[in-house]
Amino acid sequence: MSDKVFEPEITAFMCIYCGYMAADTASALRIEYPANVKLIKLPCTGKTDTRYLLKAFEDGADGVYVVACPKGNCHHVRGNERGELKVEYTKKILDNIGLGGERLNMYFMSGGQGKSFAEAAQEMTDRIREMGPNPLRK
Length: 138
What we know:
By secondary structure, the protein is α/β, with parallel strands linked by helices. The chain has one domain: 3-Layer(aba) Sandwich (Rossmann fold). It has helices at residues 18-28, 50-58, 79-96, 114-131, and strands spanning 10-15, 37-42, 63-68, 104-108. Strands 2-1-3-4 form a 4-stranded parallel beta sheet, with helices on both faces. The longest helix has 18 residues, at 79-96. It is globular. The two termini are 19 Å apart. The model has no long low-confidence stretch (mean pLDDT 91).
């Protein structure tokens, strides 16, 4: 048995406004977050698509999360709410296929919340490390 700690691969989808700005703020303030998080920009989390989320798992992500603007403050009015509906729908699919909806999450934060961004990345990494590798991973 290996003593090597499982280091999960995490994919984070984020809007170019608040989500990506929060990641940028974390970097500017030198707030560290796990290096295992791959950032993917979307024009708005309203463009979140179940296919994108499932494809991330198919491509080997152990966990996936979406970072959206705060509720009531989306640059595209209700895009973050549409994104949240897609995330909830996808969680049900993940549960139904046995992968587990807990491998997917959504966070809401403003662009200035670099600390919150780092905390979300750490929370997802810890959660997925405890769950173990994506069973779809080859």
